[in-house]
Design a protein that fits this description.
CATH topology of one domain: Immunoglobulin-like
Number of strands: 8
Helix content: 25-40%
Order of helices and strands: HEEEEEEEEH
Strand order of the largest sheet: 1-3-4-7
Length: 163
Protein backbone atom coordinates (compact mmCIF):
# COMPACT_ATOMS: atom_id res chain seq x y z
CA UNK A 1 0.00 0.00 0.00
CA UNK A 2 2.83 2.39 0.84
CA UNK A 3 4.49 1.62 -2.50
CA UNK A 4 1.33 2.50 -4.42
CA UNK A 5 0.95 5.72 -2.45
CA UNK A 6 4.58 6.64 -3.26
CA UNK A 7 3.96 5.89 -6.92
CA UNK A 8 0.97 8.26 -7.07
CA UNK A 9 2.89 11.00 -5.26
CA UNK A 10 5.79 10.70 -7.73
CA UNK A 11 3.36 10.58 -10.63
CA UNK A 12 1.60 13.79 -9.48
CA UNK A 13 4.97 15.47 -8.88
CA UNK A 14 5.96 14.55 -12.44
CA UNK A 15 2.73 15.97 -13.90
CA UNK A 16 2.99 19.20 -11.89
CA UNK A 17 6.66 19.68 -12.79
CA UNK A 18 5.87 18.99 -16.46
CA UNK A 19 3.15 21.67 -16.46
CA UNK A 20 5.38 24.20 -14.68
CA UNK A 21 8.29 23.55 -17.07
CA UNK A 22 5.99 23.86 -20.10
CA UNK A 23 4.59 27.19 -18.90
CA UNK A 24 8.03 28.60 -18.08
CA UNK A 25 9.42 27.43 -21.44
CA UNK A 26 6.58 29.10 -23.32
CA UNK A 27 7.13 32.34 -21.40
CA UNK A 28 10.86 32.26 -22.08
CA UNK A 29 10.46 31.47 -25.78
CA UNK A 30 7.67 33.98 -26.42
CA UNK A 31 8.34 36.15 -29.44
CA UNK A 32 9.25 39.76 -28.82
CA UNK A 33 8.11 41.40 -32.03
CA UNK A 34 9.00 45.01 -32.69
CA UNK A 35 7.28 47.28 -35.22
CA UNK A 36 9.08 48.06 -38.45
CA UNK A 37 8.17 51.59 -39.42
CA UNK A 38 10.76 51.90 -42.19
CA UNK A 39 8.88 50.44 -45.13
CA UNK A 40 8.60 51.78 -48.65
CA UNK A 41 5.80 51.13 -51.13
CA UNK A 42 6.94 51.53 -54.74
CA UNK A 43 3.64 50.79 -56.48
CA UNK A 44 0.74 53.22 -56.33
CA UNK A 45 -1.36 51.29 -58.82
CA UNK A 46 -2.38 48.62 -57.67
CA UNK A 47 -2.53 50.17 -54.23
CA UNK A 48 -0.65 48.46 -51.40
CA UNK A 49 -1.52 49.12 -47.75
CA UNK A 50 0.44 47.71 -44.84
CA UNK A 51 -1.60 46.93 -41.73
CA UNK A 52 1.14 45.41 -39.62
CA UNK A 53 4.87 45.00 -40.12
CA UNK A 54 6.71 43.33 -37.25
CA UNK A 55 10.04 41.61 -36.82
CA UNK A 56 12.01 39.74 -34.25
CA UNK A 57 15.72 39.11 -34.65
CA UNK A 58 15.35 35.93 -36.71
CA UNK A 59 11.92 36.26 -38.34
CA UNK A 60 8.91 38.48 -38.88
CA UNK A 61 5.68 39.04 -40.75
CA UNK A 62 3.85 41.64 -42.83
CA UNK A 63 0.08 41.90 -43.23
CA UNK A 64 -1.94 44.22 -45.38
CA UNK A 65 -4.10 44.59 -48.47
CA UNK A 66 -3.60 45.08 -52.20
CA UNK A 67 -6.39 46.82 -54.15
CA UNK A 68 -6.60 46.69 -57.96
CA UNK A 69 -7.38 50.31 -58.83
CA UNK A 70 -6.00 50.12 -62.39
CA UNK A 71 -9.27 49.39 -64.18
CA UNK A 72 -7.78 46.21 -65.71
CA UNK A 73 -8.04 42.53 -64.86
CA UNK A 74 -4.72 40.81 -64.13
CA UNK A 75 -4.55 37.02 -64.49
CA UNK A 76 -1.33 36.87 -62.47
CA UNK A 77 0.70 39.41 -60.51
CA UNK A 78 3.13 39.11 -57.61
CA UNK A 79 3.54 41.18 -54.49
CA UNK A 80 7.31 41.45 -54.04
CA UNK A 81 8.73 42.16 -50.58
CA UNK A 82 12.44 43.02 -50.44
CA UNK A 83 13.99 42.87 -46.98
CA UNK A 84 17.03 44.84 -45.78
CA UNK A 85 18.95 45.13 -42.53
CA UNK A 86 19.70 48.37 -40.67
CA UNK A 87 22.83 48.97 -42.79
CA UNK A 88 20.83 48.74 -46.02
CA UNK A 89 22.25 45.35 -46.99
CA UNK A 90 19.83 43.21 -49.00
CA UNK A 91 18.72 40.10 -47.09
CA UNK A 92 16.21 38.46 -49.41
CA UNK A 93 12.87 38.60 -51.19
CA UNK A 94 9.49 37.07 -50.43
CA UNK A 95 6.58 36.85 -52.89
CA UNK A 96 2.80 36.61 -52.63
CA UNK A 97 0.97 35.41 -55.72
CA UNK A 98 -2.05 37.51 -56.73
CA UNK A 99 -4.07 35.26 -59.08
CA UNK A 100 -7.11 36.45 -61.03
CA UNK A 101 -6.81 39.99 -59.71
CA UNK A 102 -10.12 41.56 -60.78
CA UNK A 103 -10.94 45.25 -61.11
CA UNK A 104 -11.55 46.95 -57.72
CA UNK A 105 -10.80 43.70 -55.91
CA UNK A 106 -8.96 43.83 -52.59
CA UNK A 107 -6.74 40.90 -51.60
CA UNK A 108 -5.42 40.45 -48.07
CA UNK A 109 -1.84 39.29 -47.71
CA UNK A 110 0.16 37.80 -44.89
CA UNK A 111 3.84 37.21 -45.58
CA UNK A 112 6.08 35.43 -43.09
CA UNK A 113 9.84 35.57 -43.50
CA UNK A 114 12.89 34.32 -41.69
CA UNK A 115 15.81 36.68 -42.19
CA UNK A 116 18.04 37.95 -39.40
CA UNK A 117 17.94 41.55 -38.22
CA UNK A 118 15.38 42.94 -40.68
CA UNK A 119 14.73 46.65 -40.29
CA UNK A 120 13.60 47.90 -43.72
CA UNK A 121 10.97 46.54 -46.11
CA UNK A 122 10.29 47.54 -49.73
CA UNK A 123 6.98 46.44 -51.32
CA UNK A 124 6.20 46.40 -55.03
CA UNK A 125 3.94 44.70 -57.60
CA UNK A 126 5.71 42.70 -60.34
CA UNK A 127 4.79 40.49 -63.26
CA UNK A 128 7.26 37.71 -62.50
CA UNK A 129 9.32 36.30 -59.69
CA UNK A 130 12.96 37.31 -60.00
CA UNK A 131 15.84 36.32 -57.80
CA UNK A 132 18.33 38.89 -56.58
CA UNK A 133 21.76 37.69 -55.55
CA UNK A 134 22.36 37.83 -51.83
CA UNK A 135 25.58 39.26 -50.52
CA UNK A 136 27.27 36.28 -48.99
CA UNK A 137 30.62 35.70 -47.36
CA UNK A 138 31.27 32.64 -49.53
CA UNK A 139 30.81 34.63 -52.77
CA UNK A 140 34.11 36.35 -52.06
CA UNK A 141 36.06 33.07 -51.74
CA UNK A 142 37.31 31.25 -54.83
CA UNK A 143 36.17 27.67 -55.34
CA UNK A 144 39.80 26.48 -55.43
CA UNK A 145 40.51 28.08 -52.06
CA UNK A 146 37.35 26.54 -50.63
CA UNK A 147 38.26 23.08 -51.96
CA UNK A 148 41.56 23.26 -50.11
CA UNK A 149 40.40 24.99 -46.90
CA UNK A 150 37.35 22.87 -46.04
CA UNK A 151 39.12 19.46 -45.92
CA UNK A 152 41.95 20.95 -43.85
CA UNK A 153 39.43 22.50 -41.45
CA UNK A 154 37.60 19.15 -41.19
CA UNK A 155 40.82 17.30 -40.39
CA UNK A 156 41.72 19.85 -37.72
CA UNK A 157 38.27 19.55 -36.13
CA UNK A 158 38.47 15.75 -36.02
CA UNK A 159 42.02 15.93 -34.64
CA UNK A 160 40.89 18.17 -31.76
CA UNK A 161 37.73 16.18 -31.01
CA UNK A 162 39.11 12.65 -31.18
CA UNK A 163 41.47 11.58 -28.37
Amino acid sequence: MATLKKFWIYFLMFIVSFIIITILTNLAMRDNYKDITDYEILSSSPEIRVNECKAEYSHGYITGTVTNNTGKHFPLKYLQVDLYNKDGIYLGTEYKELKYFNVDETINFDINYSYNDTSKVVLDITDEMTKKEKINFFNSIDDDQLKIALPIAGILVFYTILP
